[in-house]
Amino acid sequence: MHKFTTLEPTKLYVSPSSRLSSSAQKHVFSSTKRSSASAPAQKPWIGRLPADVHLLILAYVPIPDIAAYAVCSRATSGIARDESVWERRYTALGIERYGLGPTLDAYVRTDSPRSPPTSSAPDDEFGEFTVGAPSLSFVNAWPSNQRETFRAKFLRAHTALKPLLPSISSVPHATLAALFPSPTPLTQQAKLLHLLALFLSPRIQPTRASAALLASLNVAIDRFDVSLLTAFDGADSKGDERRMREASEASWQVWGVGVSVGAGRTKGEWEMGKVWADKREIFYETEQWDPLANFTPQNTLSFTPMDAFIAHVLAGLEEHGSRATRVFPPTAGVLWAFADRVGAEVIGEYISTLLARARQLGREVFLQATAATFREAWRVVDGLVRVAGEGVHISDESVGNGKAGGAGKEKTNGTEYRDEESQKEDGKASVDPDRKIRERAEDVVYKMFETNMDEYLDEEIESLKQALDVVCKEWERTTLSTTTHPLTPSSQTRFLTSQNPALVKRNVLASFTDVLLLPVTIVPRAVAGAGNAVMGVGAVQGFAMLNPQRWGGGGGGGGYERGVGAGGVVRYGDDDADALFEIGEAEEDVPEVGPGAAGSSTVSRPVSIITTTTTNTTASTATNTTTNTTTSTVLSTAPSSNQTQTLDLLLSLDVALSLIHADRESLKRLETFASYPGHYGRLVRDTIEEVFCLMLGAVGERHVKAGFDTATDRMAAYKPSEHESTASVAPLVQFFELVHVGDMIQSIVQVYFDKELAQYIDRTDFLNVVVREKKRFENILDDCVAAGLNAGTQVLMNQVEHIILTLTKPREYYPSSDAPLELGPTRGCTEAIRCLETHCKLLKGSTSKEVLEVFHTEVGIRLIAILQKHIKRQIISLNGGFQVIADLNTYYAFIASLKVPSITADFSHLKMLGHVFVVEDAKDLAQIVKDVTRYGGAYRPEDIYEFIQRRSDWKKIEKTVDKTMYNLSFKEDCVVC
């Protein structure tokens, strides 16, 4: 037992004798507000509760109960004097917040007594408090030099306002007369009523009868508000804006008091603002404006009537809105409540009727009408900005709290209509009044129109799908018809017939860029003529003139003519309807165009199709004077009676442009709504991405891939022996044209993406659906070109092999001994190289350098195999060996011109192989065969042995060669048993 230590008794509660003194208590209170570096501060206890619980209780009890609580002991006296208790009470008065300081000062008694505090013994439990009934006397004296604490500030207000409370307890109709016995300005009366309502609020409770007094005060406030409404209505009928403003300011002062103190008044529209708006005649003139007048007898759109309607609405907004800014307090937001109501009840109803009729006439009319009505309604924004800027400075509270004609409305009022994310992105939204005014004006239109957005976005997607499907099906039908009835070469115009395909492509891209910058007609006008009643007609015509198949005049060979017309305009073809293009080295720099306030796409300079000066034309013509005669010849000699002739018609730049144009029509309508905030803003941006992806799918899957796949299949079925022409491979030539068209389509899609879509997405976001679909489209085109080139290469090499076989004479490499020796290449070699050169040149400028190098490499590898096979089929004499060397040198020169190092080295070794046919001595020949370093390791002795067997004197030299190569002696080494 001696190991255990006796436990000392502990006190469960602090004894009265051990409680803190008043000075110590204050010290503890102050010390608890600071964190201790050594250990957390101990919270003092008063009785059985900690001090912070006492403070929490005092925050909710009436003022008389605080006095009763304070006289209990010195500890409770210290708690009652704590600044947090009085800070809460004084803040609830809203002196600084509502600017009620001058009103309070008018009722402060300057002769109020200031008695010094009475002294007390140190051990006195009650301190300086007077024994007697609980009262507020404990806060009625303070040193004259004491700083303005919250307790002192509240005491001053309490002393001033408490004498007024008996006047409130009288009958309601006499309350106002008791409070204001002499004539007092309406604004001062309203501020005092506001101050008294806050003073009697549950957060302060100056007396135990505060609730009853507040109810009586509210009745008086309602009577006061009714009298103000009557005065305002009379002043309004007389046009007395000064009296209207005085009454409205007083009414606004007392109207918000019931909401702020929670004394039986609910949130809703401000009665004075609502009554004023109800009397505006703009809400009762709608019958004279017929929304259906915007439809012509042909059921097309003409928005001239809506122009007049919006102009009338703007005039009403400017007239009544300007008065609202002058006679109503800015914080009341009456202008915005009035504008919201005009938007919903006047403009919104007009648009709803119009769109309902447009929906009956068809989807396209509905889509055009939706974008056009929104653009027309957007004119209201500028009008509201002008009106609000004249006399209203919209504070953070007035824009966001929805008071007014807006007090207590949902959060869709004011800038709170915009989602938090958009506000965070725009750091100036909280500091730029002009920006806030414009955003608030925009929200009027956004809120009014959002009921139409869901249906519009759905219909836009369905319309685009249908439009793309129609274009693709029409092209498929046309392609099938062309296969059955092929076109003749003279009726076609191709990239390959141009003098410079790369220059033509630059011209097309430059023209396409300017077409994208053409203004788009969103709102059709009757004065524009019947042709322009459809949206974007100028852009349609511009798109239609971009197709190279429309440039030619239909001359022989399908080529185009180029000349300089009046004013230095370069014309392609003879027809006046042909497109005009600018000859230039690079695309003209043009500024990117954003959606603007309403998503419109405009440029600062007028844009024609394309024109250029005579100087530029002359310079460009001088640098491109060489005509590709070989290409024109190849295309003009293409067969016209089989399916392969139509390979170059399997892709159409016109179809691609039609698909892009259909997508652009939808995009331009969507751009009208691109600045929509919040939920619908995200939906609009998602729809913009979706329409671009739909276009990529149509161009990539249904047009490009389908065309290349068909071309690849038809090329694989081509047989050179069935065709007379040896200089060209018709399907490959047409496939190269197809590659040019595919490359042009990809370039146009890239330009379209850069100019129209890049502003809405993050290009670096590889997870973005547009970025992924665009990459997928590019991969589809690359894969199709690669597969087609593989098949095309095989077709080309089959043609080359056919040329070599058919044009090589039986004794080409075994001439008679008396025949003259010609060291030039054979006709088969010449024609084969001419065929290869022609087709290799056609691919330049239509694909990347890497793809071109792979094609050249594949051609070289397969040509080596053909030549090796061809040599092994011949019988070659010594004189014929020189002919072989001449052919091999010619083939080497062609391959060297392709500038592919790997295959150039292979042909260099093949050229050296020709020497084995001109060595007369058999032993020397055997040494050449054994020298593996001679051919760079490309040929083994066994391989060379196969070639020398094609020598005409092989039977004579065979034994010598074998003996030298393998050290064989048949007489000595062979034993026949």
Features of this protein?
977 residues; elongated; single chain; two-stranded antiparallel sheet; mainly alpha; 1% strand; 37 helices; Exocyst complex component Sec10-like protein; two-stranded antiparallel ribbon
Number of strands: 4
What structural category characterises the helix and strand content? mainly alpha
Name the overall outline: elongated
- Helical percentage: 55-70%
- How many helical elements? 37
Distance between the termini: 122 Å
Average pLDDT, to the nearest integer?
75
How much beta, percentage-wise?
under 5%
Descriptive report:
It is a single chain. The protein has 977 residues and is an all-alpha fold. Helices cover 58% and strands 1% of the residues. The chain has 37 helices and four strands. The chain has a two-stranded antiparallel sheet with strand order 1-2. Helix 22 runs antiparallel to helix 23 (537-544), helix 26 (653-671) runs parallel beside helix 28 (730-757) and helix 28 runs antiparallel to helix 29 (769-807). It is elongated. 38% of the residues are buried. About 23% of the residues have low confidence.
Compact overview of the structure:
With 977 residues, this protein is an all-alpha fold. Helix content is 58%, strand content 1%.
Write the layout of secondary structure elements.
Layout lengths: L21 H11 L12 E2 L2 E2 H8 L4 H8 L3 H7 L2 H11 L7 H5 L44 H12 L3 H4 L3 H8 L6 H14 L10 H29 L2 H21 L9 H8 L25 H24 L6 H28 L1 H15 L1 H13 L4 H5 L19 H6 L7 H17 L3 H32 L16 H16 L20 H8 L17 E3 L5 E3 L41 H10 L5 H8 L16 H19 L6 H39 L13 H28 L11 H39 L19 H17 L5 H24 L5 H21 L2 H13 L8 H9 L10 H8 L5 H13 L3 H4 L4
Antiparallel strand pairs: 1-2, 3-4
Helix pairs in contact: 3-4, 5-7, 9-11, 10-11, 10-12, 11-12, 14-15, 14-17, 15-16, 15-20, 16-21, 17-20, 21-26, 21-27, 22-23, 22-28, 23-26, 26-27, 26-28, 27-28, 27-29, 28-29, 29-30, 29-31, 30-32, 31-33, 32-33, 34-36
